Amino acid sequence: MEKIVIITGGSSGIGLATAKRLAAAGCRVYEFSRRRAEFDFMRHLSVDIADAEAVRAAVEEVVSREGRVDVLVNNAGMGISGAFEFTDEAEARRLMDVNLFGMNNTIRAVLPHMRRAGSGRIVNLSSVAGPLPIPFQAWYSISKAAVNALTMAVANEVRPFGVTVCCVMPGDIRSGFTAARRKSAAGDEVYSGRIARSVARMEKDEQNGMSPEAAGRFIARLALKKRVKPYNTIGVVYKGCILLSKILPGPLIRFILEKMYVSPATATPSSLR
Is 144 a catalytic residue? Predict the structure, then answer.
């Protein structure tokens, strides 16, 4: 039977690549974003996912058309960078509204329908930065750590209803996310130029990272698999990073992250998205 899919932030990058893959697999895809997306393989609904009422209304529209929602892919997100000390509070709150509370809005809107159907799959986009927080991307890392916690907690709450919840933790992805990041160099003179150097190094690594298409293939496959793990990492290098984060002592992890992001030179192969 044709799967009914909702994906947020599917107008570009990883979201668009995932939507293409899901449509190619025979799914009927609905895309929620503020930016108009004109593609013949999916249906766009103009939604700000930070607006709970708008999200609820959009989900109800999908259900009225299709009768159900089988898969939700929470892909929409934003990034900010800068020193934690100098980050504007409004910027931090906006990031959490999108990256965390946007997921809250979509999950709460689809869960009643999935519970009644006795089935459903929710896929949340997280990041390797969740378990391995990146200096000068504190709030982005915080939001992704929260997504990981949300995923595990909700997965256990809704499992008896036949609904499965998992997350995907990408590393560097070559996409428009890099250019869209809101960067602040406030306080860089206090931090001896470390903010600018760190962000520049990270963005260079992102532009040499995995293609959105490769990530989209992974996410689409996960969305349709019969059984999934709660946490899923893309790529052997990043799987190794996550494994090391579990077994290495905290001071050593902190030292490695410092050398990767804020030292003049590094021998590590890549930064973490």
Answer: yes
Place of tokens 């804020």: 262
Single out the catalytic residue among 30, 81, 140, 270: 140
Catalytic residue among 33, 126, 270, 271: 126
- 185-197 as b/e: b if 16+ CB within 10 A: beebeebeebbeb
Nearest of 172, 188, 206 to residue 262 by alpha carbon: 188
Per-residue model confidence as pLDDT tens digits over 165-211:
999 999 888 888 888 889 999 999 999 999 999 998 888 878 888 89
Annotation says 11 is catalytic: yes
CB 201 within 8 A of CB 266: yes
H or E element in which residue 245 lies: helix 236-247
143, 144, 175, 270: which is the annotated catalytic residue? 144
